[in-house]
Write a structure and sequence with these properties.
The chain is an alpha/beta fold and 549 residues long. Helices cover 34% and strands 21% of the residues. The chain has 19 helices and 26 strands. The strands form 5 sheets. Strands 8, 9, 10, 11, 12, 13, 16, 20, 25 and 26 form a 10-stranded parallel beta sheet that branches. A 7-stranded mixed beta sheet has the order 3-2-7-21-22-23-24, with helices on one face. Strand 12 (232-235), helix 9 and strand 13 form a beta-alpha-beta unit. Helix 6 (162-176) packs across helix 8, helix 9 (244-254) runs parallel beside helix 10 (282-291) and helix 10 runs parallel beside helix 12. The chain is globular, with a radius of gyration of 22 Å. The relative contact order is 0.16.
């Protein structure tokens, strides 16, 4: 059946269509070229709405071991945030640590149709994929965590060469059915296992003697030479440490022209000025990003309220466990692979540090000039739950609203930010870019993030309202692959998503090397570690993202 969406104001920046009243035609789950009305086609009157492609969240912790540990630790989260009465389906509840089902429903209720889990540990990848398959109404993909795994560090330390590293990265991406590579505190998690408690960019870690710079550069070359579309997704050194702005600037300089994505950059933009020795480095970071077109970022905006922080960066989480709220936390080592730290936290606007973190994130959004290189995230759940996106969007689009909130935060924090001086207000075009078109482009998703012919028919109709928070909270209609799944902000149907992966080629000799390694060091057969295509989405298999030439 063909569906014609007519009368809406279309925003499709990827195809140069900005605020045009035009028809969008859907057939067999895809957008098709413009055509005259045909007998029997369904017509959706979109008058009074703005028409976007489905939203894409580049970085949200939605599945895997740390997410389940967060649910375990924060069982009260589901009691305090139950599913709505009379809900379409029994989706469980939760806000900071929602169930898988609740995750899909709440995302689709906001107009999102694709979400990426940015920290899949190889040893836990099968579990992460099983969870992602249980999330309705959204497509998913995982970023493989490398940079602290012993096999990789041995390859680099022993000087085995770039090709060996490339073959290992390619083998791991295919084995774990992931679509990008994430580095969490390069070398720092491994250093923590040898009692290291800090590791700067050019500091050699214990045992292997490798600097984070060398690990980063080696993996940057690997993903570039393998043709993985998304560049290294980097959680850098010294997360949350006052003065880490200098490390972040040095990291940008260390990229040596290779594309690099800096994730939750807000947590890496802190100075040491003032009597409290904590200040904003947003202006310096934004200036560096503006000057380096090969750098992209997502912000990791802090939002006030209860959340739970979950990260593979156990070095950082161990440092923060003393400020847990409520007073409980979990730390876990994953031998020879990674680690995990889960620390509940409540961000308060009456706290100087929390208030300044909130302002730093907004400054970064407003100071970075190119919306194609900054993506809207809260690093769910670390900076705040993803359900706060509509509120964040209004903060970006509505300066009086932003100024009103600025006036309520800790007085000293207001004095340490230039947020009030920034008059920029995001446009609907820019929101469409940072939440749709730009994430699709950096991930190599050619049929996502736009409304051109051939795109998946993920289409969202938002009522055009002055209150942008209300507007982006409850779309009039959401289509997933041409199927209506949300009407007036309520879920009316459940659709099965798909899983994105990349399968770069590797030398068969790496199969044999890793078979020996798994037998001798891991205690699990490499054949059992690898996830077969038939295991993805109940036999559906992954949708492969095309490699760059």
């Amino acid at each position: 059946m063909r569906t014609r969406i007519t009368g809406g104001r279309v925003f499709d920046p990827a195809n140069g269509i900005i605020d045009e009243i035009r028809d969008v035609l859907v057939e067999d789950g895809r957008i098709i070229s413009a055509a005259p009305p045909a007998p029997g086609e369904e017509v959706v009157d979109a008058t009074g709405t703005v028409v976007f492609a489905g939203g894409i969240d580049l970085h949200s912790h939605i599945a895997g071991g740390k997410v389940n540990l967060g649910r375990l630790l924060m069982s009260e989260d589901r009691l305090l945030n139950p599913e709505p009465s009379g809900a379409f389906c029994g989706c469980g509840g939760g806000r900071a640590a929602p169930t898988t089902h609740m995750t899909g429903c709440r995302y689709s209720q906001m107009g999102y149709t694709t979400v990426f889990e940015p920290a899949v540990v190889g040893a836990n990848a099968r579990h992460a994929h099983l969870e992602m398959a249980d999330i309705p109404n959204i497509d998913t993909g995982g970023f493989l965590v490398l940079g602290n795994d012993d096999f990789l560090l041995r390859l680099i330390a022993d000087g085995e060469g770039q090709q060996a590293v490339n073959d290992y990265v390619a083998w791991m991406l295919k084995a774990t059915q992931c679509c990008a590579v994430k580095i969490v505190n390069p070398g720092g998690i491994n250093a923590f296992k040898f009692n290291g408690r800090a590791l700067d960019l050019d500091e050699a870690g214990p045992f292997y003697g490798l600097t984070p710079r060398r690990i980063l550069h080696t993996l940057q070359r690997a993903v570039t030479e393998l043709g993985v579309p998304h560049p290294i997704h980097l959680h850098g050194c010294n997360l949350g440490v006052p003065g880490n702005v200098r490390t972040t600037l040095d990291t940008i300089g260390a990229s040596e022209g290779f594309p690099l994505h800096l994730t939750h950059i807000q947590f890496h933009a802190y100075g040491t000025e003032g009597d409290r020795h904590f200040s904003s480095g947003a202006a310096e970071i934004a200036e560096a990003v503006n000057a380096h077109p090969h750098i992209s970022v997502d912000v990791g905006q802090v939002m006030f309220g209860q959340t739970v922080t979950a990260s593979a960066d156990l070095m950082s989480q161990y440092r923060n466990h003393t400020i847990a709220d409520p007073k409980k936390w979990i730390g876990m080592d994953i031998e020879m692979d990674a680690a995990c730290g889960v620390v509940p936290f409540r961000y308060r606007d009456t706290s100087f540090v929390n208030a300044l973190q909130w302002a730093i994130g907004l400054e970064l959004f407003l100071r970075i000039e190119d919306p194609w290189r900054v993506y809207l995230t809260t690093d769910h759940p670390n900076g705040g739950p993803f359900t706060s996106y509509p509120h964040l969007i209004r903060l970006l689009m509505d300066k009086p609203f932003r100024d009103d909130h600025l006036g309520r935060i800790h007085k000293a924090a207001r004095a340490h930010t230039r947020l009030a001086d920034l008059s920029r207000e995001y446009t609907l075009e820019e929101i469409a870019i940072v939440t749709r078109a730009a994430p699709a482009r950096t991930l190599g998703l050619r049929d996502r993030g736009h409304l051109g012919p051939g795109a998946r028919a993920d289409v969202v109709l938002y009522e055009d309202a002055a209150d942008r928070e209300a507007m982006f909270s409850a779309p009039r209609l959401v289509m997933k692959d041409g199927q209506v799944v949300v009407v007036n902000g309520e879920v009316v149907a459940l659709a099965e998503g798909r899983t994105y992966a990349v399968h770069p080629p590797s030398d068969p000799l790496m199969d044999r090397r890793l078979a020996r390694w798994f037998d001798e060091a891991v205690g699990l057969k490499s054949a059992h570690y690898r996830i077969a295509d038939s295991e993805i989405r109940d036999g559906q298999g992954p949708e492969l993202v095309e490699l760059a030439p």
